[in-house]
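Hi V.,

Quick status before I head out on leave. The structure for the redesign project is tokenized and pasted below; the design run finished overnight.
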């Protein structure tokens, strides 16, 4: 019973205290109205002065290796003759790792160092980014060093530092890569920027760079095998063609051989044996080369671009009504809290 009395007294005190605060704030209604008006004005001013941002969106579907039925038939055919053309590319790039590849410094930096045409002028993307963000000069007012350096020359410490800052800002503030549906293979790339042309160009370039790097990395081993087999096949084919030419030359040099002297036929027979051996080697090499090409085709992922950003891009601007509401609400709440704190401090001091 005593516990209930204490609880009722506590709740009553709380209700009385809330009513007391309400009455006090009600007595200061003019100040709260003024704060709300100022907040609404600030919100409207922010929405009016805020520069629009442009949103470039692209989507693509990723079909990884090992998912094609026709290639599986070739793999089964190869296994029947004792050959294994692989079970698909593994390695570090599997599943959702391509999303992380978009956020990597290597891909973003490669895209920033690409040259694009803006309004009839060729310009590095990083220079365009620095220009419209007001970062062309350092804090001392000196222009940043040029990023167009020879291929065999490395960037300076200042250039690397500036590039790292730009990459970090783009990765955290501008670029967003995600799967709209976790069960789907469709990936959405979204880039937001104050510069409409930069947003579109950067999105196009980074999709191309990541796709090329992804495919190259997935097929690197198979591509190397195909290249080696192709060189060996071409070499043996040239040797076989030389053997055929030598046999014909030997026959032409001795059109009526003396059957009593078998030694005269030895050079021609040797070339014939070499030709037969090279022919057998060439048959095996061609077979292995074609199977390696099938393996390369099997491991090559298919990246099908579904949507690309098209000008004019979607313009993202803050809503005036929402900014006015938020500005007014926040300033009224801050004013009310300030008034209550001041009143509480006065009561404690008094």
């Amino acid at each position: 019973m005593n516990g209930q009395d204490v609880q009722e007294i506590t709740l009553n005190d709380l209700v009385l205290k809330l009513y007391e605060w309400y009455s006090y704030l009600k007595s200061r209604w003019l100040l709260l109205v003024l704060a709300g008006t100022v907040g609404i004005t600030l919100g409207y001013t922010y929405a009016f002065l805020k520069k629009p941002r442009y949103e470039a969106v692209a989507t693509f579907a990723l079909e990884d290796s090992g998912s094609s039925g026709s290639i599986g038939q070739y793999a089964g055919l190869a296994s029947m003759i004792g050959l294994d053309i692989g079970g698909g590319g593994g390695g570090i790039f599997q599943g959702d790792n391509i999303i992380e590849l978009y956020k990597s410094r290597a891909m973003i930096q490669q895209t920033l160092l690409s040259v694009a045409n803006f309004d009839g002028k060729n310009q590095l993307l990083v220079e365009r980014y620095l220009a419209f963000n007001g970062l062309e000069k350092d804090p001392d007012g000196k222009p940043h060093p040029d990023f167009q350096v020879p291929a065999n020359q490395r960037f300076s410490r200042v250039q690397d530092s500036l590039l790292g800052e730009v990459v970090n800002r783009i990765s955290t503030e501008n670029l967003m890569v995600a799967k709209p549906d976790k069960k789907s293979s469709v990936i959405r790339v979204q880039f937001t920027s104050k510069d409409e042309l930069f947003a579109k160009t950067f999105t196009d370039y980074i999709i191309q760079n990541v796709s090329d790097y992804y495919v190259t990395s997935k097929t690197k081993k198979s591509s190397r095998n195909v290249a080696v087999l192709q060189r060996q096949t071409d070499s043996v084919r040239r040797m076989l063609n030389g053997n055929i030419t030598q046999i014909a030359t030997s026959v032409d040099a001795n059109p009526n051989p003396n059957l009593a002297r078998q030694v005269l036929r030895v050079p021609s027979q040797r070339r014939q044996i070499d030709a037969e051996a090279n022919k057998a080697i060439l048959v095996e090499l061609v077979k292995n080369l074609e199977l390696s090409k099938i393996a390369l085709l099997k491991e090559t992922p298919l990246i099908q671009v579904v949507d690309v950003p098209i000008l004019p891009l979607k313009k993202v601007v803050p809503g005036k009504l929402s900014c006015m509401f938020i500005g007014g609400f926040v300033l009224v709440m801050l004013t009310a809290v300030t008034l209550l704190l001041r009143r509480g401090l006065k009561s404690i001091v008094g």
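Above is the designed sequence. The first strand starts at residue 53 and ends at 63.

G. will cover questions while I'm gone.

Best,
W.
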